[in-house]
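Q: Can someone sanity-check these two? First one:
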Amino acid sequence: MSKKDIKVPNIGEFKDVEIIEVLIEKGQKIKKNDPLITIESDKSSVEIPSSHDGTVISLNVKIGDKVSEGDKIIEIESEKEIKEINAKDPPNNQLPAEPKKNEIKRTKSSKNIIIRDFLAKASASPKVRKFARELGIDINKVSGSERQGRVTESDVKLFVATKSVKSLKDQNITEQKIEQEYSHSEFGEVDIKDIPRVKKLSSKYLVNSWTKIPHVTNHDEADITELEEFRSSLTDIYTGEKKKITPLAFIVKALTASLKKFPNFNTSIDDIENGKMTVKQYYHVGIAVDTPNGLMVPKLRNADNKNISLISTELKKISQQCRDLKIDKKELFGGSMTITSLGGIGGSFFTPIINYPEVAILGVGRAEKKQVFIDGKFLTRTMLPLSLSYDHRIIDGAEAARFNNDLKENLGKNFAYKLAV
């Protein structure tokens, strides 16, 4: 046995760099190249590996310390000869030694062998380790999906989502009734009315969606100047009368085209714990309809196979069925993605709640004419506010931004919607 100091090697321009992770502990057996600490400068994070095999007998640093080249990290006791597996039978008069701490005793083919358990640490890049640390997650508890179990940022996100859902189940959280100290009538005259049945039914779905899905909303604007000019110019080829097609019909068609290009938006997660998601091969767009009884979301089926005129007709039909409470219950389920529009009422950006078990919803505000700087000059353009809420367990921010960009193109100058009128 011999003792050896493991020091910070030449790390280039790094000097007085803060330790953000200590990856080993006293008494732990380590191998050459095993990561010992992670240091972080303003530019990057770096793992410092061990230069030798051995057992840690003293730890000379802690999180928050600042180190430079040559600073002592740990002291190890190095064995001249390490035998990981001793496959020979012990002498007849000698029993196998009891396994030491951090060792597991197993029996195989009547042979007593000792397999050392080195308290394995998760394999991950410094960037992923930092991401997990910022979320308060022990990265060693995260299962890696890449080669040799390497942990990615997506693995950390999935772990967070799974942990959140499991926590809710384990705690068996139920709605807590808060007792009011004073009744409303003590402060003035009041009326007591029944909550509309539709709102009662939808409330549990809204609560379920908000508590189960990690929502993120991307806000953007689409230039629909040419779309509006085209829409206003539509006339019936037989009567010559002006066609009344709402902007929503064009948005449905544009959204369907983007769903085909970004299939992750046309999925559902029924159970995050089984690691599976359903990728839909159909395009049934949900439309949030404001009714006297509350919000209802019927589905416009197979929107990809319908032209804009037919979409417009069906939108009016299903909206009226909802207002008359004559919509079939099944038509409120089985959607790809939902559109909720406030354009006819007012407002710009908002944060729509995803219609579970879908993974995204598009909120549309009222279009406004704005001065937009294009090609070195300000031009008056018609801009449409878009609020895209998405399930962060499945969709990343970059993918959401690309989806919005594609949707804006479909609503913009490419005029792809013209072919579908």
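And here is the second, same format, sequence then tokens:
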Amino acid sequence: MARLQHHTNIALHRGHVVGRRDFLRHVAATGLAAGACNWTDVISASAEELRSRGMACILLWMQGGPSQFETFSPKPKHDHGGETKAISTSVPGIEISEHLPHCAKVMDELAIIRSMTSKEGNHQRASYLLHHGYLPMGGVKFPTLGANVAHQIGDASHQLPSYVRIGGRLPNGGNGGFLGVEYDPLVLNSAERMPQNTKPRTGLDRYHRRLELLDSIQTEFAASVGTQVVSDHRKLTDRAAEMILSPSMKAFDLEQEPQKVREEYGSGNFASGCQMARRLIEHGVTFVEVVSNGWDTHQDVFERTKDLTAQIDQPMATLITDLKRRGMLDRTLVVWMGEFGRTPRINPRAGRDHYPKAFNAVLAGGGVQGGQVIGSTNYAGTEVDERPVTVNDLFRTIYHTLDIDPDHENVSKIGRPIKLVDGGEVVEELFV
């Protein structure tokens, strides 16, 4: 067993790039060679190693369905491309929309999937699918991607929540689902001000006495009819009470950022959200979602998307650059996506309608190989021409990148085991 422990230490300390699969494979082989292997110790060590790596994810969510033609898949040589021109990027041969000049400069860090495909063209169902990996199902409250990531690799003892959403609640109420309220996101409407109600209005002694009184009242209620309600409420109030007294609350204060850095991100809600996302990841938060609204461009798609891309271009590029210069990009996966794309054909209102058949997602960091394009559509942009990637493929890839087992089964409250991802394949090209 001493020999097993020696090799376990090597696997744990050889560097942060040791993944869970490689770690388990290494320890298993060593244990077999030694003739003994305590799998409880192995799994425990694996979980501890994963958390010590500090892997994290930032989801940049484009609510409403961004047009692929006006963002990362322009078609300037076809009528379907409309008014949008393409520009060169830092990677020869890869072109993106003229409205994303800052992203073009960091193309060497970006991997564009141009062959995302789905069958869901309804906003609510598609948004649910792209947040949960499952479609809504009666009787099952699925956890969101963020909740699953927080559950798998978040630090439950950390004073800040593992999952934060900036830009308001999901329309479909995405939360911790059957994992419990402790995996619901902390929701901020805006990053430009501190979270509301996070400063005690009394001295600390009186504050703690009030908490004790609340606990006493809840105990009486739980003893009669409200056991589960009280249990859930206690989980929230206990975490909130700990959080608001934590020195880590400074992560929410953008005023502490140097003015030069704030200017690099640009102005606006999305810029502030990206900057706060980096601060939160720096302070140990595991999953942060930053929302950009308004991408449902059924009319005036060219003017509206020009404005929308101006809001996200500089902040997104700066976020990636900032993470890299701080040594955080290798352990932080950044994902840009929306619920679907827009129709190749421009409608009579100069807009584009819903089109799940072919759309985009962009990944950076977390070990993803940037400077490449995965998949393609045909000349007209109407069909996926090469390397289709489904939503399940994408989710499996995200979990894989974060060293989370996509086949891990959670047991729902109705007693049914549910995998993090049902089917799909890892997009291996992203790591070549």
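A (reply): Looked at the second one. The chain is about 40% helix and 15% strand. The first helix runs from residue 2 to 13.
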